[in-house]
Each structure stands twice: as structure tokens, then as C-alpha cells.
Amino acid sequence: MKVGVVTFPGSLDDVDARRAVTFGGHEAVALWHGDHDLQGVDAVVLPGGFSYGDYLRCGAISRFSPVMTEVIEAAGRGMPVLGICNGFQILCESHLLPGALIRNDHRKFNCVDQRLRIENTSTPWTSAYEQGAEVTIVLKNGEGGFVASEDVLDQLEGEGRVVARYLGDNPNGSLRDIAGISNERGNVVGLMPHPEHAVEDLCGPGTDGLGFFTSLAAVAFA
Amino acid sequence: MARYVVDVMPKPEILDPQGKAVLGALPRLGFAGVVEVRQGKRFEVEIEGDATPESLAEVEQMAQTLLSNPVIEDFEVRTA
């Protein structure tokens, strides 16, 4: 598959995400925030970083960048979209996902090898995992606290749309320990931890993140 | 020139870590008796022409779409 990775001004993890996409067995395509063009890709990753300097709110300005018009439209047609960290914030600001991400409750930037449980393996980004798999993936954020109204949280839980949940101490104050969620259809996934930093043994806490990028192949050949 | 002020505040039920940090700092500076601080944003918007109901509605639209996130924030628009 051709997987596009968008670079916004201030993106940090776009190159790592493209590398992880390649490790997952796909062709990585660099997409530019200022282009109204997805270059014919089959899926899109919105990477981590501090797009537009996190000015106004994290993801608030990126959400209106030209490429997002195309991403939002493609997501509506069912194209798989994965937002990692800042990408998750952009997806919430775009209203492709419910809720919002606010400053960590302890007010410090957090960088840890985080234990997670994968709770929904029916999305195109998580189908390579066993249901309930416990994995370790890097978490690094200052504004990773997931918040939503009680009704929305109940709906997410009821519809099985909590994709990943933090294990152990809650690292950022996210309500109900939520680390990642999906939209109703399941094709759009937002995740605070960084699977693209856990795809090779040389660096990072292992290769537990690779599944997010190999899952797409299973979708392609299903 | 029409001037508007948009105040954006975190919703009461949303945790405000920045406000909490300020609240924690005040007693250290000798300001006693402060029980709560909430931190928000203030935008000053200038629009060509006179203030009209239409330009007010436009600023409210700006506040709704970009200046605030209605999931976590409330806003108020007034003429300056």
C-alpha cells in the first residue's frame, strides 16, 4: 500500500513515521501540509511534533491547513487515517474524533516506555495485535490528557472504540486511562503513544509498535 | 474600525493545569487567601468598517470555529 505521512511546519516524527511505514511493508509517501493533494495514497499518518508551534491550541491551526481538507474528505470515504500524538490532537480539532487533549495533569512533559493494552483489534491500524495484547510503546507528550464528556466516554466504551488504554500509573491524566480511540467506522484512529518509535530493536523499547504499520497489509489483502 | 474582544475560558468541569500552577505560585509570593485561579485567553479583533450585527456575528463565528474549542472551552464576544 501507499501510505502518506503529512509534514506540517513543526512536525518532528514525520521521518520516523515514514521509516516505520516502510518497515511495515508499505511505500511511504511524503505529503506536504500546504498541498491539496494526497498523491493517490491508500492511507494517511498524521505524525507527532508541534505543528504550527502548538500556537492557539495543539492542532488547532493545522486542522485548517490545505491538505487536511483532503484528509477529512478521504477519512469520510473510509480511508485509514492514523494520528499519533500531535496527529491525534489534529484529528480531535478536525472533529474526526471526539474529545480533546489537554495539558498533562501533573504539568510536566512526560517521556517514558509506556505499557498499554490494545483493546480494539478491528481497526485497520490494530488488526495485527491479539485482543487484549499488552505492549510497550514510547509515550512523550506535554498535552496528552484525553478529555470528553461522560456521555461521550460512555459511548466510546460501549461501542468498543477505546483502541488502547494505559496500564500502570496514568501518565497524563487521561480520563479512563484512554491512550487511543477510533471513530465510529473504525478507519480513523488517534493514539497518544508513538508506535513509530518502537519498530526496531536498536533503539527504543522494542518492536511492539510495528503492529500499527503491519496491520494495514492485512486490510489490503483481506 | 470595529473592535471586538473575545474571551476564551476552559469550561468549569475541565481541569486547568496552568491555572493550578499559578494558584500554587501565589502563596509563595505572599498572596494569601487565593482559593482558585483559572487561566484563559483574550483575543482583540479589529474589523474594517463600523461595528454591526453582521460583524459581531462574524466574530462569533471565528470564536466558534478557530479561537475556541467548544469541547473544552467557552467564549464570550463583546465590543471593545
TrEMBL record, chain A:
Pfam families: GATase_5 (PF13507). GO terms for cellular component: cytoplasm. It comes from the Bacteria. Pathway: Purine metabolism; IMP biosynthesis via de novo pathway; 5-amino-1-(5-phospho-D-ribosyl)imidazole from N(2)-formyl-N(1)-(5-phospho-D-ribosyl)glycinamide: step 1/2. It catalyses: L-glutamine + H2O = L-glutamate + NH4(+); N(2)-formyl-N(1)-(5-phospho-beta-D-ribosyl)glycinamide + L-glutamine + ATP + H2O = 2-formamido-N(1)-(5-O-phospho-beta-D-ribosyl)acetamidine + L-glutamate + ADP + phosphate + H(+). Its main location: cytoplasm. Coiled coil: none annotated. One of its GO terms (biological process) is 'de novo' IMP biosynthetic process. SMART domains: GATase_5. The active site is at 85 (nucleophile), 194, 196. GO terms for molecular function: ATP binding; glutaminase activity; phosphoribosylformylglycinamidine synthase activity. Its EC number is 6.3.5.3, 3.5.1.2. Keywords: ATP-binding, Cytoplasm, Glutamine amidotransferase, Hydrolase, Ligase, Nucleotide-binding, Purine biosynthesis. It is found in: Cytoplasm. Part of the FGAM synthase complex composed of 1 PurL, 1 PurQ and 2 PurS subunits. Part of the phosphoribosylformylglycinamidine synthase complex involved in the purines biosynthetic pathway. Catalyzes the ATP-dependent conversion of formylglycinamide ribonucleotide (FGAR) and glutamine to yield formylglycinamidine ribonucleotide (FGAM) and glutamate. The FGAM synthase complex is composed of three subunits. PurQ produces an ammonia molecule by converting glutamine to glutamate. PurL transfers the ammonia molecule to FGAR to form FGAM in an ATP-dependent manner. NCBIfam families: FGAM_synth_I, PRK03619.1. HAMAP family: PurQ (MF_00421). PANTHER family: PHOSPHORIBOSYLFORMYLGLYCINAMIDINE SYNTHASE SUBUNIT PURQ (PTHR47552). This is Phosphoribosylformylglycinamidine synthase subunit PurQ. It comes from Nocardioides currus. The gene is purQ.
From TrEMBL, chain B:
SUPFAM superfamilies: PurS-like. It is found in: Cytoplasm. It catalyses: N(2)-formyl-N(1)-(5-phospho-beta-D-ribosyl)glycinamide + L-glutamine + ATP + H2O = 2-formamido-N(1)-(5-O-phospho-beta-D-ribosyl)acetamidine + L-glutamate + ADP + phosphate + H(+). Keywords: ATP-binding, Cytoplasm, Ligase, Nucleotide-binding, Purine biosynthesis. It comes from the Bacteria. InterPro entries: PurS, PurS-like_sf. One of its GO terms (biological process) is 'de novo' IMP biosynthetic process. One of its GO terms (cellular component) is cytoplasm. Part of the FGAM synthase complex composed of 1 PurL, 1 PurQ and 2 PurS subunits. HAMAP family: PurS (MF_01926). Belongs to the PurS family. This is Phosphoribosylformylglycinamidine synthase subunit PurS. It comes from Nocardioides currus.
